[in-house]
């Protein structure tokens, strides 16, 4: 990386908008138009258990695989419900998260497949949803439900941050985006509970993720780069810039986000197609997802990352690029 003066880094930190979380972003017109579109819960959502995707099949046959991370779809329902003032959507999303925590063991862990990584999604989604709700006009309406989630959320987060899980966390270091997933989830939980232990753990993962950033701005995935997972890393890093109080943010964070977004933008051509050239995980059948389908570039994640950058002062060019990616019908 080229030498950058401390003064330049401090300027970047000072121009970063000081916002109360990312609720203004999630509820912004452009985000509602492009990503956070209205969702209508199933007619019988109150009678459903709340299990999502393959977890519904596990309910019928406990011999099948299940992943508590599937319940993170609840966060998308919460976001859509808050943005479009649909209380049923919010409550349906919270019910999905509650289903996940109701399967948690006494020590904060889960008996699902890939338990540590899977739990990290549930922690991040739930903490983010609680912060969004508490910053919204619906805060009082859903206070009882969010309060019920806070204790199991804390227990799971403390299990994740415990020394017993240090080796599990370090094995994930080859996936750059997971440093920010862990950091974002633990930081948001730390803010909800005022927990210094979780905040220290969050700092470790965030700073370690930034140390992994390549000279060209990419965050590594399995020894190389991946345009789709890089976008996921950018979502969590930029969310951290909005939810973390100014006294806790580090000057390196906005700089890393700026460089990361520049690399992401460089992977998008004039038609809006996201390049998969050199990707280590997505776009060419390298990996399959939990349900067995080949992983493709997550265009929604790319669009979200670009819109975060626009919201954080990147200008209209990033919004225009996001629209271009969303409108293209071409696969990489």
Tell me what you see in this structure.
The chain is mostly helical. The protein folds into 2 domains: 1-19 and 218-332, no CATH class; 35-39 and 63-212, Glycosyltransferase (Alpha/alpha barrel), CATH 1.50.10.20. It contains 15 helices and no strands. The protein has helices at residues 6-15, 23-26, 29-34, 54-60, 73-83, 87-101, 115-134, 143-161, 166-171, 176-193, 196-212, 227-243, 252-266, 299-314, 316-327. Helix 6 (87-101) packs antiparallel against helix 7 (115-134), helix 6 (87-101) packs parallel to helix 8 (143-161) and helix 7 packs antiparallel against helix 8. The longest helix is centred in the middle third of the chain and has 20 residues, at 115-134. The protein is globular. Mean pLDDT is 92; it is low at 1-19.
Give a short synopsis of this structure:
The chain has 332 residues and is mainly α. It has helices at residues 6-15, 23-26, 29-34, 54-60, 73-83, 87-101, 115-134, 143-161, 166-171, 176-193, 196-212, 227-243, 252-266, 299-314, 316-327.
Chart the SSEs and their pairings.
Layout: H1 6-15, H2 23-26, H3 29-34, H4 54-60, H5 73-83, H6 87-101, H7 115-134, H8 143-161, H9 166-171, H10 176-193, H11 196-212, H12 227-243, H13 252-266, H14 299-314, H15 316-327
């Amino acid at each position: 990386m080229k030498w950058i003066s401390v003064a330049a880094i401090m300027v970047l930190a000072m121009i970063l908008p000081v916002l109360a979380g990312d609720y203004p972003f999630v509820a912004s017109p452009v985000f509602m138009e492009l990503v956070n579109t209205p969702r209508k819960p199933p007619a019988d959502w109150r009678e459903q258990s709340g299990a999502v995707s393959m977890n519904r099949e596990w309910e019928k046959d406990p011999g099948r695989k299940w992943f508590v991370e599937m319940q993170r779809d609840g966060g998308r329902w919460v976001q859509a419900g808050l943005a479009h003032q649909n209380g049923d959507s919010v409550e349906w999303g919270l019910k999905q998260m509650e289903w996940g925590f109701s399967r948690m063991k006494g020590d904060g862990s889960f008996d699902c497949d890939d338990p540590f990584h899977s739990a990290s999604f549930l922690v991040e989604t739930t903490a983010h949803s609680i912060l969004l709700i508490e910053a919204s006009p619906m805060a009082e309406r859903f206070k009882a439900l969010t309060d019920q989630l806070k204790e199991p959320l804390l227990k799971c987060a403390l299990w994740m941050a415990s020394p017993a899980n240090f080796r599990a966390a370090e094995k994930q270091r080859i996936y750059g985006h997971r440093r920010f997933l862990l950091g974002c989830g633990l930081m948001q939980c730390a803010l909800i509970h005022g927990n210094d232990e979780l905040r220290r753990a969050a700092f470790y993962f965030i700073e370690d993720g930034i140390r992994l950033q390549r000279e060209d701005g990419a965050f590594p995935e399995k020894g190389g780069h991946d345009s789709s997972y890089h976008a996921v890393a950018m979502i969590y890093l930029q969310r951290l810039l909005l939810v973390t109080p100014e006294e806790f943010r580090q000057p390196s964070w906005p700089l890393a986000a700026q460089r990361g977004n520049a690399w992401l933008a460089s992977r998008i051509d004039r038609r809006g197609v996201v390049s998969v050239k050199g990707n280590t995980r997505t776009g060419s059948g390298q990996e399959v997802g939990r349900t067995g389908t080949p992983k493709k570039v997550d265009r929604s994640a790319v669009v979200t990352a670009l819109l975060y950058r626009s919201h954080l002062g990147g200008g209209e060019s990033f919004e225009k690029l996001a629209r271009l990616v969303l409108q293209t019908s071409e696969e990489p």
